[in-house]
Design goal:
mainly beta; two-stranded antiparallel sheet; 2 domains; 46% strand; extended; 1 helix
Length: 168
């Protein structure tokens, strides 16, 4: 089963980086999500409980998460939900709720904007231009150049010059 979920919460632990026996890099951390509800009697929002998840980010996402995240950070995680039952050494059973992360990002919904110094403007190279379609001097020629993939007519106006009819 492949259940994709989106979670918003706080890192409850510092990200931990390690590698599998075959050398695949991964980073894991515990994520706490809190539910809140409005209490009409008191007129206030109250906490309604905390859910805990183990989040695992693999390969390049894992490396980026390890470098960018810290305990307490508020994040949004999108990934595949996996629920596992296990048995402890004392014979009792437990249940683990895990997320194999596909994307992790900061949750900016409750964060004040921080002024960042402007990055120096870098000159940009002009994007490569597609070669111009060949134009025919015959007024009866087809407009096949307009039907070429990735091209689109700017208008359907034909402009006559002394030697050709040119689509514009």
């Amino acid at each position: 089963m492949n259940d994709v979920v989106t979670l918003r919460g706080h890192l409850g632990t510092a990200p931990e980086r390690r590698a599998t026996s075959k050398g695949t890099l991964l980073t894991s951390f515990r994520l706490a999500t809190q539910s809140r509800r409005f209490d009409r009697d008191s007129g206030r929002w109250i906490d309604a409980g905390t859910n805990w998840y183990t989040v695992t980010a693999w390969r390049q996402l894992g490396e980026r998460a390890f470098q960018a995240l810290a305990k307490g950070d508020r994040v949004i995680v999108v990934g595949n939900l996996r629920i596992r039952d296990y048995e402890r050494s004392d014979g009792t059973t437990g249940r683990s709720v895990e997320i194999d992360a596909e994307a992790i990002g900061p949750d900016l919904s409750q964060r004040a904007a921080q002024e960042q110094p402007a990055a120096p403007e870098q000159p940009r190279e002009a994007p490569p231009q597609a070669p111009a379609p060949e134009l025919s001097t015959s007024p009866q020629s087809s407009n096949a150049a307009w039907a070429a993939p990735g091209t689109e007519p700017h208008s359907s106006v034909l402009v006559e010059s002394e030697s050709a009819v040119v689509p514009f």
